[in-house]
């Protein structure tokens, strides 16, 4: 059931005049009853948005969001997290399972989807846990989650690696019958344990921080792509952070293995050097990597080896970040700044055009997650999920001007594109620049 | 000098100044009445998130012999599990009107973070596997005295080769010593099995070796670092026996040293593991001199941080 059918109809018409439709040329868009309609039929009372100079993208889809509800509503809620998503141009977010309780049952998934429908400013799509309690021992009820009204298709123990090879194999095999995908947090816990918090290299050695070697990611991915080949199932790799993993993905894709992969915005721009001052704002898992990895990730996003940009938006209460670096929580905000970083790192340097931006941020993630109403063409009859952006606008990121409840924003004080002008989710304006 | 967070923050002139003043402080220690009025009215808090009787009492004596008011706050146990953030703990202590915070923490970087949150001077008394600058200063003080016995005019360590052997990866003493010894002009050789050599050590301004026997004949001083037995479970080395055979300063290896070469160890020693009793108790062992130097060097550092300031207690503040 496409989510837009569950929403109250929006009576007013909105006519977007003269937007560049994801690089396909300028045209008008009429939004009526939650869908795109023929602009020639616009009523005299339609609200007009002058989109001269603006680009229209299908609403962005984030494959990797932490909404913290239920369990840590002091850090983020469905309402605030999706408000941040809307500001960032997203019309759908996949909410990771590592909440309290864990989304490892049909009931938990349905509850979250229901909160999303009532309170969300974007479609909230529950991700189901692969293993019960994320413990990595026993499969969660994947089939029941898939058959529930939440229609879970993406399963992930994100935050934890499905380290046990047998469990990973079984999960891949099992979800094949559900048209599901296993989204792996690739981190060999023996090579990079819970305390690993800095890319293993010159800086970790100098700072005396426990190292997180690049191979702890790539060796798991090398294993998993072969398991995906064996099981003829779909594997998705979360937050790819290393050049070595990119090499493995290229090999796997050349072999025809059904693997997709995402990259987080922070791994496209920030480097290990940010950690030199022990500021936990820059503590994230997997960690920031040196420039050669950043370069490899941009190349891979440009050539499609990396299929999607996903935020890994990870809000944390201030007191969970104000510990010593090694003891502070992992993660950083990302929803509101993701498109800005994609523009800065990929569009401004000419590495991606608008059709590819639409593919990496909307069309492909929607396809990976099997979201039928998202990532669709901007054509008559389609659900009106739309992001309008001004590619020329820039600004200085201010962490206090955020819809998120949290402030662990690594971009604070940085001058970046500030592109999002308006977001429409199923025809409803979820964000309009004031 | 506002804070002392890293041995690498000190210029050669500052190091020399600290060591020279420490010599004067050491003279005071020899008197029957040890107290100087220099820091009267100043308040120093030893904020220790990790136990260390030796370092804490050394700082405590240093502060007291300079007439400062010194209190010890033990914040042992993870503040994470107690629900209080590091920032809360630090600001709470600083809010009492503290002039200097002497911080030891089990996590690397914590004193540097604290220094961004408070107006008080912050002194790193050992942070995780990062640095322990006053240990490096007292090592330098001890070595300078040692070298001056035969070369009275020696100020730097130019032309001297200092060997540091042991668990370099997990040693804050090693990191601070590398920085400080290089500032003093010494050649530094790090010796460890490859498993205990830090990532990226190739970019450090040192030579490295996995063969202790190869480097010992060149050494002017040997600094043995503590090896924790629990490293075995991490697979860093197979057995204590094998470690000792490869990297311990054994009785046999004493014979490979040139006469009078200084033997140092920051303590606590694992006798029989990284250092033999013969080496620890040798005539040229400076291990007890290192301990004795601790108070004088810390008096000097405290004076450099706090001396000569207006004695108005500073208040704490939060960041913006």
How would you describe this structure in keywords?
heterodimer; A: 434 residues; alpha/beta; TIM Barrel; eight-stranded mixed sheet; five-stranded parallel sheet; 12 helices; 29% helix; 19% strand; globular; disordered N terminus; B: 320 residues; Rossmann fold; 2 domains; four-stranded parallel sheet; disordered C terminus
Task: Write up this protein.
- Chain A is globular, with a radius of gyration of 20 Å.
- Chain A has helices at residues 78-87, 106-119, 142-147, 165-176, 202-207, 215-231, 243-254, 265-269, 291-303, 318-321, 338-347, 354-368; strands at 14-21, 26-32, 35-37, 47-50, 55-58, 60-65, 90-95, 123-126, 154-155, 181-184, 198-199, 211-212, 234-237, 259-263, 308-309, 386-389, 394-396, 415-417, 420-425, 428-432.
- Chain A contains 12 helices and 20 strands.
- With 320 residues, chain B is of the alpha/beta class.
- In chain B, the strands form 2 sheets. A 5-stranded parallel sheet of chain B has the order 7-6-5-8-9. A 4-stranded parallel sheet of chain B has the order 2-1-3-4, with helices on both faces.
- In chain B, helix 2 links the parallel strand 1 (43-48) and strand 2.
- The longest helix of chain B is centred in the last third of the chain and has 20 residues, at 287-306.
- The two termini of chain B are 24 Å apart.
The pLDDT mean of chain A sits at: 96
Largest sheet of chain B, described in full?
5 strands, parallel
Fourth-level CATH superfamily of the largest domain in chain B: Aspartate/ornithine carbamoyltransferase
- The geometry of chain A reads as globular
Indicate the radius of gyration of chain A in whole angstroms. 20 Å
Taking strands numbered 1, 2, ... along the chain, how are they ordered across the largest sheet of chain B?
Answer: 7-6-5-8-9
Helix content of chain A: 25-40%
Q: Helical proportion of chain B?
A: 25-40%
Report the uncertain regions of chain A. Answer: 1-5
- Percentage of residues in DSSP E strands of chain A: 15-25%
CATH class wording of the largest domain in chain B: Alpha Beta
Secondary-structure-derived class of chain A: alpha/beta
User: How many angstroms does the end-to-end distance of chain A come to?
Assistant: 33 Å
- Series of secondary-structure elements of chain B, N-terminal to C-terminal: HEHEHHEHEHEHEEHEHHEHH
Mean of residue pLDDT values of chain B:
93
CATH class of chain A: Alpha Beta
CATH architecture grouping of chain A: Alpha-Beta Barrel
Give the termini distance of chain B in whole angstroms: 24 Å
What would CATH call the homologous superfamily of chain A? Answer: Metal-dependent hydrolases
Write the CATH fold name of chain A: TIM Barrel
